[in-house]
Amino acid sequence: MVRRITLGSGDPKRLFIGGLHGDEWKDTSEMLESLDAPTTGSLVIIPKLTDRAYISTLDDRYYDHGGYGVDVIAAINDIKPEIYLELHSYSDFDGLTDPGRIHRVGVPAYIELEDGVLIGSISPILRRACFSMHDVCLSFEIPAENRRSQRLARKLLLFTRDCVSKDEFLDFLLGEYPDQGNRAIDNYKRFYGIEKI
Ligand SMILES: [Zn+2]
Fold first, then answer.
1. Bridge-based pairing state of the strands 136-143 and 13-18
2. How close is the Cα of 116 to the center of ligand 1, in Å?
3. For the whole model, what pTM was predicted?
């Protein structure tokens, strides 16, 4: 059983996960573990899902029986979070932010907010299996071993920890990063073929 930390209680419910594959946990788990309880509602943290070999969350095998994603889906089914966040770390900036990523791997490029911190969507496999379009599902990518990025990532985690709704998150994103936020929202709407989020 994967270790879960539960902070606070009640709604809204949030789930933050790090260490989704390979050694990413080395850059993200401590940051997740350092969070304390949200102002309202609850937060469950899985600081380190796995340290087994890297398999992309875009790969069906990730969620297969015996795959790492089985624990993710179990946690989502238990907790039913309205706000779900994955914290990844990366070394391939160009690959993740390449506008051609949609053609290469079938999902939109990540968008840099600032200091190498990227925002994007979670795997469409998970999104479609477990969430409604009203839920907030975020994936942040931070560069491995970079202090400035860690500071910004912590700020984003703290905001999301206390965030109570999708509209509040979108206001924050568009207030702080209007250009990047609009691009991320456009990518998302185009990908899922929806007019409005
Ligand atoms: Zn990752």
1. unpaired
2. 15
3. 0.96
